[in-house]
Structure prediction request, 118 residues.
Amino acid sequence: MTEQIYKDTCLREHQFHTVYSFDYQDELNIYYYPENTMLFNPKTGNYEQAKKQVLFDCEVTPENAWLSLHPKQLTELCDEQGVSVEDACKLFLAIYADDIPQWTYHFGFGVYRNEKKG
Prediction:
C-alpha cells in the first residue's frame, strides 16, 4: 500500500544505468552493453548479450598516485585470480532519461562524467 504513493509522487527523476566493461590487450578496449539486446553467436550457437566497442576519453595517472592500478594491471590481476575479466571489469554508470553523457576514464581515479563547458 505505501509503495504506490512513492511511485505516484517521485521526489526526483527515475535513474537508469548503462553497463560498460573494459579489457586490455595491447590497448584499452571499452565495451557498451545495450539494454535488452541479444545477438546470435554462430560460433557458440547461443544468443548472447550484445556489446559494442566505444571510446572514452582517458587520463593518465599522476606520478604521485600510489594507490592505483593501470587497466593492464587490473586485467592481469583478474587472470591471476581466475576471475572473468568481462565480469570483474564491468561498470554500472548512472544516467537520467534525457542524458547522453561522455565518460572519462582516469587511470588513477576511475570513471567520471565529462561535463562539457561552454
About this structure: Residues 14-113 form one domain. Residues 16 and 95 are 5 Å apart (CA to CA). The longest helix spans residues 71-81. The longest strand covers residues 15-24.
